[in-house]
Amino acid sequence: MIQSLLIANRGEIACRIIRTAKAMGIRTIAVYSDADADALHVRAADAAVHIGPAPVRESYLLGDRIIAAAREAGAEAIHPGYGFLSENAAFAQSVIDARLVWVGAPPASITAMGLKDAAKARMIAAGVPVTPGYQGADQSPERLADEASAIGYPVLIKAVAGGGGKGMRKVDAPADFAEALASCRREAAASFGNDHVLLEKWITNPRHIEVQVFGDTHGQVVHLFERDCSLQRRHQKVIEEAPAPGMDPATRDAICAAAVRAAKAVDYVGAGTIEFIADAGLENGDGLRADRIWFMEMNTRLQVEHPVTEAITGVDLVEWQLRVASGEPLPMTQGDLSITGWAMEARLYAEDPAKGFLPSIGRLDRFALDGRVRVDTGVDEGGEISPWYDPMIAKLIAHGPTRDAARTALSDAVAGSVIWPLRTNAGFLVKALAHPDFVAGTMDTGLIARAGGAMMPADAPPAPVLAQATGRLLGATALPGFRLNAAPVERAMVLVDGTPVETAIGPRVGSGMESVLLTDAGQSWPVTRWRVDLAGGAAAGDGSILSPMPGRIIAVAVAQGDRVCKGQPLLTLEAMKMEHALVAPFDGVVAELAAVTGAQVNDGLLLARIAKDEG
């Protein structure tokens, strides 16, 4: 068995590998860039080696530096995780040439599956069904246009070296083909250094089905059943589950057998995923059928969504990777493997759905996730989401006896996440998990695009939830009007994420707090006390104007003895980088004025008092 392991990665996958390796008694070594010096994966490992500046091309993508770090730390093996160098055949070979153990697919297998056109040709030879299309060597625009017409529109242009949704274009008509081809090639050349493409028939109702496979050095290959990754946004997976909805035993047997043939065709060793595209036939209610499922590509590494397979099979896939890399046979045979229950995974990202899902970067001042589900993360409270790397905060994985049980548990866990001040996609995930098509298991890869605003989270908290938070903030009754002889309802003005909002609460019973963080359906808003009108009266019954929060007086608009009208500005307080006007609660006279421009004031301090105009 391997005794020491360097993880050539960062974030949640590095933490996840470290967890299993430590449980197996293996010494763990992390690598880190300048940006990750205090990262969770660095603190979790037994040792850590600095490999360069923050940009990945100056640190995590430098294979020679990672091998040097392994030698420096006395590592016996290197695990690449996923992303970065995990599917780089040259790096894998360099690790082997350095007499280190490579915990990954053989370089020849990576190369065989690395280009989509060559991989499809190999799959055809192995009897694996492939999507109708063209993957020939003639890359002239004329030949490609002719092949597209022969396939029949719409067609999909795909970069042969592509991945992650890059280098892909759907073309609906012959007139659009030339421009789409040129655009696809430019993107492919810039992203992968290879502008060759292949063509595939566009599937109208596509489902993304993938099969986890595993091989050892003794010639054994097994599958660990399928996953459904159809809920996607711009070709990026959002929610994954295992098993796949609508998968009957006969179809499962067919697709999983094809996946094993695919792995054997490239003498595969280690963890891999065979990805298929399925024509769901949703408009006919036919569900999944073996004759409408085709090979798409192979990922020669561990997948982000591997935890759902672990949940339904009870297998630790990283442990299997380490055992197979050590030369051991697979711990289980195909007959030993079975499915128990259902599992779902949601990818929690630091991104703002309201701003086109742009990354949200910065410090996690508040970070709390539901411990009743599995949480794989690479950050903790006080940590940073860096602009240099993928903004995934965590993966939440729920397992239950049924699909609906797993879905409900996952939704509750995502909804209960407390993250601040970074924006996240948690509210979007809650909406996606509740969408009728997803609940029914009849989604396809176009669902999110079709749903549009229906999956966008609310931009403000619901009124009842805000009333609850305001009640906590002011020490007031949270749910007014639900008992006989209740006191009059108050109107409270609070700041919700910096915006003044009026809400109804019951009477105050104490001094309350300065601010609270309101969380609802996965979203968080800071709610801060601003001004309270008691039953339409003043902030205090005698007309006292109190400082609603600590701050600085930046303007005083009245003098003692001045007559004022209800709603007239009296003074301005600067707090929380915002200006807050305090106004007269009723018509009257400024009987007292303690506010002085420039003075710092505390919460609850008397600033002025208005005597009611009795005339």
List the keywords.
615 residues; alpha+beta; Rossmann fold; Dna Ligase, domain 1; D-amino Acid Aminotransferase, Chain A, domain 1; 5 domains; 16 helices; elongated
Characterise the protein shown here:
α4 packs antiparallel against α5 and α12 (403-415) runs antiparallel to α13 (426-434). It is built from 16 helices and 35 strands. The protein is of the alpha+beta class. The protein starts with a strand and ends with a strand. The chain folds into five domains: 4-103, Rossmann fold (3-Layer(aba) Sandwich); 132-201, Dna Ligase, domain 1; 205-340, 2-Layer Sandwich (D-amino Acid Aminotransferase, Chain A, domain 1); 347-454, ATP-grasp fold, B domain (D-amino Acid Aminotransferase, Chain A, domain 1), CATH 3.30.470; 463-612, OB fold (Dihydrolipoamide Acetyltransferase, E2P) (Beta Barrel). The model is unreliable at 479-488 and 532-539 (pLDDT under 50). The strands form nine sheets. The chain has an eight-stranded antiparallel sheet with strand order 14-13-10-11-12-15-22-20, with helices on both faces. A five-stranded parallel sheet has the order 3-2-1-4-5. It has a four-stranded antiparallel sheet with strand order 6-9-7-8. Helices cover 26% and strands 32% of the residues. β31 (569-575) and β32 form a beta hairpin. The radius of gyration is 30 Å and the shape is elongated.
